[in-house]
TrEMBL record:
The lineage of its organism: Bacteria, Pseudomonadati, Bacteroidota, Bacteroidia, Marinilabiliales. It comes from Draconibacterium sediminis. Residues 98-150 form the RNA polymerase sigma factor 70 region 4 type domain. SUPFAM superfamilies: Sigma2 domain of RNA polymerase sigma factors, Sigma3 and sigma4 domains of RNA polymerase sigma factors. This is RNA polymerase subunit sigma-24. Residues 10-75 form the RNA polymerase sigma-70 region domain. Belongs to the sigma-70 factor family. ECF subfamily. GO terms for biological process: DNA-templated transcription initiation.
Length: 161
């Protein structure tokens, strides 16, 4: 990858990459950090990255960086929760978007990624396949399974509420 291709990748993909990460973690500063980390990794590995595959590399790197950060935060939050006494509370959901967000967070990582790319970012199946190194049929299967889970999850919440 050349310096020109790198600069072109920044111009072409930084906004999309930022929106993708922000939709997943809902933290502006963390999303900016993840995007910056992704471009830093691209720069350090620029000699091994094909200029035509830079989009896939960036989204995959950002996704893995985001997952690592989420796991790290969950471990530290879990450690903090262990020291606090448990308080009883009722979890009533009046907002469908909150339920949907919770349901999406319960999806397996690959299903969450393809659903976010398809439904939030508007990529087609072929583009998602290129970004995730999956075949188009695998992408369709993961999206189908994710949507089926979301439908069942939202239905079960409404039955309880």
């Amino acid at each position: 990858m050349t310096i020109t291709e790198y600069n072109l990748a920044v111009d072409n993909y930084s906004d999309r990459l930022y929106r993708f990460v922000l939709k997943s973690i809902k933290d502006v500063h963390a999303a900016q950090d993840i995007v910056q980390d992704s471009y830093e990794k691209l720069w350090k590995n620029r000699e091994n990255v094909d200029g035509t595959k830079v989009k896939s590399y960036l989204f995959t790197t950002a996704y893995h960086t985001m997952i690592d950060r989420i796991r790290k935060e969950k471990r530290s939050a879990f450690a903090e929760d262990m020291s606090l006494p448990e308080e009883g509370h009722e979890s009533n959901y009046s907002d469908l978007s909150e339920i949907l967000k919770e349901a999406v967070n319960k999806l397996p990582e690959i299903q969450r990624m393809v659903v976010l790319l398809r439904d939030y970012e508007g990529y087609n199946y072929q583009e998602i396949g290129e970004l995730t190194n999956l075949s188009e049929s695998q992408v369709k299967v993961y999206i189908y399974r994710a949507r089926l889970f979301l439908k069942k999850y939202i239905g079960s919440i409404e039955a309880v509420a």
